[in-house]
Records
---
Amino acid sequence: MTLIATISPAAKQTPQTPPIRSEYECSLPVLEEIGAEQMLPLPLAQRLWRKAWQNTWLRKTSILILLALLWEAAARWKQNDLLFPTFLQTARAFVQGVASGELLGYAASSLIVLLEGYLIGIAAALLLSTLAISTRFGRDLLTTLTSMFNPLPAIALLPLALLWFGLGKGSLLFVLIHSVLWPLALNTFAGFQGVPETLRMAGRNYGLGRIRIVTQILIPAAMPSIISGLKIGWAFGWRTLIAAELVFGTTSGTGGLGWYIFQNRNELYTDKVFAGLAMVIMIGLLVDNLVFTTLEKTTLRRWGMQRI
């Protein structure tokens, strides 16, 4: 039996070609000729200004100078040295306090206590975060504790710390650890959770245990979140310490910058009060721009975790 294929007349027709659009020309507007005087390089002063303005330190210093000028103008308009001393009066009191060593001594006392509490808080936060990323019980423990204690202000625990540890370093360390521990633990755990699973699988393929995976893979990969937590913990701890020393100043004769501010406030040395506050601000600026910036350069940019 032979099959004969039939072709319909419509199939025999050749396909139609699409219509060809006619070509056309579009005349562009003629650009104006640039004169020879416009092709000259920028003046030297303008080039130096642009190059200098690209410096971060110069921009930040300009902001500080502007704030100082506004402070001086507002104080002169107020004309009340007891309530609001001028910037020059505060600078004079600051220089005198630094030259005599009094202000530096109080600042050193505060920084020593802060460093102890800060390091203990970092160790506790890393321990909790490592436990949380390794076991389900640790994850539940961290989330429960942070939900309970992170919203609780550290200064609110100061009366309880005074009952437990008395007047001294123990109470300060207690509130400092509380203020540093929870934000750092949350940021570190969030950074650990953001590490790709492929990196962990690569570590397990190389035979790394849980501790080595945390130290060699998770911590470098989560370093941006860890450094953010370190900054937050530093800020919380610094202001908590100053506030705690102010409270200690009402019942104790020793302390750091908080006690210095409290004592001069009682004696109505407002310029020294502002000098103490200026020292608190300057220490914060130095730590943020020197310590944490150096830490970012040696970790984040080294491992390619941040754009330069």
---
Amino acid sequence: MVDLDLEKFFDRVNHDILMARVARKVKDKRVLKLIRAYLKAGVMVNGICITSEEGTPQGGPLSPLLANIILDDLDKELERRGHKFVRYADDCNIYVKSQRAGLRVMESVKRFVEGRLKLKVHREKSAVDRPWRRKFLGFSFTWERGPRIRLAPKTIKRFKDRIRQITRRNWSIELKQRIELLNTYLKGWIGYFRLIDTRSTLEALDEWIRRRLRMCLLRQWRKPRTRRRNLVALGIPAYWASLISGSRKGYWRLANTPQVNKALGLKYWKDQGLTSLVERYLELRSAL
């Protein structure tokens, strides 16, 4: 796979080349003038307006469309050469049969992008490598002969970092409110990543999220007497509850003990309304 990354793409788009591409399709001079003014509007830095001689406003509503317009020439060139590729804005992957072919394609595409489009290829982030060692929009592949779509390692790390923020044990909010925040994030996240084929990863993440929540509850039940009373109320034998309430283990370790796992198991979190990544994934997959 040729993983192509354009260096500071939105900051370096040549206005004249971009407007020439737009003018191929848009004949209304008023629209062209408006787009040119949008590109020249500048940005505010510490309250000072800085004019823009090149680039498009990153994060602006029109920028992704303009990116597709100027990179349409790259798409057409890759199609003309017969390459299999996928591109989203300035991220592009080209699939080839060998390392040697990948290196050859990388050099020729670099010449095209830097010579014809006046853009710069980020040499450190671009690479020719096996697909399962690279990522694209948060996705990657498994290494088997029949590859499956999976989550990229960095995607899982970002996901866990966000869940850790919501399930901080020193954040004193009600469990209901915490679950609402989790559900909002989990539904949007799995809606985007529903294309993956590795269900086992989602099962592991579900288990990890429930353990984080059990840790938060144990933190709220700080006093041994409160902890014992709540565990007994959840159906745990008094002797087991006493062992947990008198333990000196940390909250994270206690959250994975058989007693706490049984008291705060799948049924408990389902009754609390917690979204399951696996269940949501299956619902979305059946609708595809």
---
Amino acid sequence: MDPRSLTPALRAPRLCLHLLMTGLLALAAVRADSTAVVAVAALTGSVYAAGSLLPSVQRSQRAAGVWLGALCASWLALLWLTPDGLWVAFPLYFLQLHLLPVRWSVPSVALTACAAILSYVQHGAALNPGVFIGPLLGAAVAVATVLGYQALYRESERRRRMVEELIATRAELAAAERHAGTLAERERLAREIHDTLAQGLSSIQLLLRAAERALPEGSPAAGHIDRARRAAQDNLAEARRFVRALSPPDLAHGSLAAALERLCEPTGEGPRVRCSVSGTPVELPTPYEVALLRIAQSALANTVRHAAAERAEITLSFMGASVTLDVVDDGKGFDPASVRSSSDGGFGLPAMRSRAESLGGTFTVESAPGQGTAVAVCLPLPAGVLA
């Protein structure tokens, strides 16, 4: 691990480990009665310092293993020369646990503790419980401390990733809500322009045409009425262009049938979807196309998310005085009564029903557990379309 990337909470234990190793090696050198002990203590200190200074040891697990082996070898030489080398085993515990995998680090710590005990006995020290308890207890404390810290670190990393995912999800949700709000406002404006401005201009044009027919031929007022009718016609065309510009992108470059066909394109997930059109297609007002497309999208989304279906079919039918849309799947179905009685409405059905009823249509759902689902909407065509 790069020392520059350590937080203050990690730098403190690292500094304490450096001070502990330096102090214990200095103690062994000061208490030595031969230059060989001083030389080996200095060698051990140099090997330890090299591990903190060499970048390869910080970045490569293999280099770290080689460095740890060299450090343990020099420590064993010091242990052979003086019993004071025993105390260096304690910082070695932490290094082994930090640098080696658990399956190797715990046995290495046990072997280090045994080597320290055997060295103490080999130098002729009097046997007492402390000779065994000290190194073994130190090893147990080191194992518990390091493994506990690693568990806390993993939990901290897991929580950090969860927080990052939550932040990213919230950002995506906010963007989706903004996009949905924009589309809903565009549809509302298109519907308002169509139902008020465009319809008003169309009525004005019809009234002016009737007035023009009622005037005597060659009447001076006929020219003014003709110009007014043409102005109303031009503004009606402009209003319809506004409505088309505010329509959903799926309808911008094609008909409703083409947009429904695009919904059926395979995505690699969900059921196989087929689309069919029956009857003689007529050009529908934009609010009708928007409502039918949104209902089809919502119903198909419910099929993908909830139905676990293998097949689904979208049928658009032109029936003279009305247009109907059916979305049928062979999924697991549900109880519509329980959905209507639920607190949240469920499945987006209220939104679909609201769209249909806002245009004077009807919306029905037929389903039962294990028997698939059929969603049907029927919209009466306005008089202008029928003509």
